[in-house]
Amino acid sequence: MKIFQYLLILLIFLSPFKANASRNTNSYDGNIFPIYAGNGAIVPPQTTLQESLKNKRVSVLFFYLDDSSDSKAMAPVISGLDLIWRNNIDIIALTTDELQDNDEFDQPNEPNFYWNGLIPQIIILDNNGEIKFDKNGMVNIEELNEIIGELKGIEIKDSKFSIESFNEYNSIISEKKDKNKN
């Protein structure tokens, strides 16, 4: 039996099939957050939109698909928001696959109410559930930080963030340092 296990392990390592993942294609590579953002804790969301609205918290809705290159590129931005604002906001990242057949569009406590049918889409709701930001496509993390900072009453004008790739798949958020400051 041990010989069979060793042969199986050897076959796995000598297999000619490579694992291919590419941020620039619309191919399905798996969940985009652990692969491209290094943060698999974002999905499934820690809370629901209903709970977030009930608790009067600032909410960031992120609608995406795992097989969208634009969604893959936005994953590090959403992960960066989680890193910066972790316990101060609710990040609710939802794949649109499960929303497409849901007919509950008229309920403001349902995600479908906010989704416009395009991906990626980022929506920021204030603690009263009012839309303060709604945009499709690529969004700069500094723009999102500024809006969230205003909603939370925190001035963050001195902090600038950037997303840096450290290999062909993963990115990390980092704070830009002003070299002219003492």
Query: What's the CATH H-level homologous superfamily?
Result: Glutaredoxin
CATH class division: Alpha Beta
| Major sheet characteristics | 4 strands, mixed
Structural domain count:
1
Principal-axes geometry comes out as elongated
What do these coordinates show?
The chain is of the alpha+beta class and 182 residues long. It is built from five helices and six strands; from the N terminus they run H-H-H-E-H-E-E-E-H-E-E. The mean pLDDT is 82. A hairpin with a 5-residue loop joins strand 3 (121-125) and strand 4 (131-136). Helix content is 30%, strand content 19%.
Key terms:
single chain; alpha+beta; Glutaredoxin; four-stranded mixed beta sheet
Topology:
Layout: H1 2-14, H2 32-37, H3 49-54, E1 59-64, H4 69-85, E2 90-95, E3 121-125, E4 131-136, H5 141-152, E5 160-165, E6 171-176
Parallel strand pairs: 1-2
Antiparallel strand pairs: 1-3, 3-4, 5-6
In brief:
The chain is built from 5 helices and 6 strands, in the order αααβαβββαββ. It has 182 residues and is of the alpha+beta class.
